[in-house]
Specification:
Length: about 425
């Protein structure tokens, strides 16, 4: 992870607490103090010796050259979808690394240079996690090893979304346990909540250049119901827009929308995805929209000036013998720029890189043109995955609109 980059931190919850404290009069101890004496007379404001206004500070951020006064960047990845084969691999890796009983870090290691190439990295935790020593469960009712989140934090992720069709697979207990593990690792989160009060506080993350919020929601819960209606954010465009407005009122400069929906293993977004994403974009409250759920890479679209990444596929998963697309993913880095003080933020660069899961051993493997990990898949598989990913990603006009492949080795050499 880039050591020069300050860690992102959540401030929405703190702001809400401070506002509540003010409303309750908890700051009254300062009100009782004697007022400060009047300041001594100084030079007139019209004096020619008055100091000039300070120049606004430039913040280039991580990523490509900043085209404005300030820039910041966000890296987004697909589902962390852990199956038994992956925790078997983590047990083998723990035997080598000594990080007992399970070590998922080698599985995710290839993501590290991409994560360090952005100011903020956000993962998607698809399922609940179990107790550290199990028992674990895979499909269809997941309850997976929490060590996957330990590894996500270790390679540099700073936050995760948690609303999916599997969020309540292990009930309220599993939902709360997952959030507790995220909290213990310092990973911020949104999409599911332990308390109703938490559900009303937007996740706002500070980078060196801007304050960024992520608003997420899922289309459903696989026929289950959450114990409380506030526990999981359900897909509703108007509600997401309202929450985005609330995030901006609490200081967010940039708002991302995360839509968990779509048809599994598809290569195009369905009507619900398109309608929801376009409604979010039309509201003017979202600076970028992206999606999960289909377990397949989906197109990137520039809709009336707003970028929509319809589907990031899987970050990690077991290899499907029936659907090759299940084994593939997309990571995206969006650079946001502010031209000058007070100007709106805009996406100034959108880059993507294709990936695939390989086995023996199981590893996340970039198949971008620069092969930053080296050839971790066969030449035939690399070519097949790249061809399929490029054709899908660019099928809704992404390339002429300016989206391009992310060659992270060029970033590393520049840094």
């Amino acid at each position: 992870m880039n050591e020069d980059r300050p860690p992102a931190s959540r401030t929405g919850k703190l702001l809400a607490v401070l506002l509540l404290a003010s409303a309750l009069g908890l700051g009254s101890c300062t009100a009782a103090q004697e007022p400060d004496p009047a300041p001594a007379a100084g030079p007139s404001s019209s004096s020619p010796s008055a100091d000039p206004s300070p120049e606004p500070s430039a913040t280039p951020g991580a990523g490509p050259e900043c085209p404005g006064l300030r820039c910041t960047s966000v890296m987004l990845a697909g589902d962390l979808l852990v199956h038994p084969q992956l925790w078997d691999q983590a047990r083998l890796d723990a035997g080598t690394t000594g990080k007992q009983p399970l070590d998922f870090e080698p599985l995710l290691e290839g993501m590290r240079p991409y994560i360090s190439g952005a100011d903020l990295a956000v993962c998607h935790m698809e399922t609940p996690v179990a107790e550290a020593d199990g028992p674990y469960a895979g499909y269809p009712m997941f309850n997976v090893p929490p060590q996957i989140l330990t590894a996500a934090a270790a390679v540099g992720y700073q936050a995760c979304t948690t609303a999916s069709n599997h969020t309540v697979d292990a009930g309220t207990e599993g939902l709360n346990r997952t959030l507790g593990v995220l909290d213990s690792l310092g990973l911020e989160h949104t999409g599911s909540y332990a308390t109703e009060a938490d559900s009303e506080i937007p996740m706002i993350l500070d980078t060196s250049g801007a304050r960024i919020s992520v608003i997420e929601a899922t289309y459903g819960l696989n026929g289950l119901e959450a114990e409380h209606p506030w526990q999981v954010d359900m897909l509703d465009a108007e509600d997401m827009i309202s929450r985005a407005q609330a995030a901006r009122e609490q200081g967010a400069d940039i708002v991302l929308g995360a839509v968990h929906a779509g048809d599994e293993y598809a290569s195009m977004p369905n009507a619900q995805q398109i309608e929801t994403a376009h409604a979010l974009a039309d509201s003017g409250q979202f600076d970028l929209i992206y999606g999960h759920h289909t377990h397949s890479v989906l197109p990137i679209e520039n809709y009336n000036g707003t970028w929509i990444v319809y589907g990031l596929g899987n970050a990690v998963t077991e290899l499907s013998p029936w659907y090759a697309v299940n084994n593939e993913g997309l990571i995206v880095r969006a650079q946001f720029a502010q031209e000058n003080d007070g100007a709106d933020w805009r996406v100034s660069d959108l880059a993507w890189a294709p990936s695939v899961i390989v086995r023996d051993p199981y590893r996340w493997c970039s198949v971008a043109a620069d092969l930053p990990q080296g050839p971790c898949a066969s030449e035939a598989q690399q070519a097949e995955v790249r061809q399929r990913t490029v054709s899908v990603v660019e099928s809704m006009g992404a390339r002429p609109a300016g989206a391009h492949e992310w060659l992270v080795s060029e970033d590393v050499s520049a840094r």
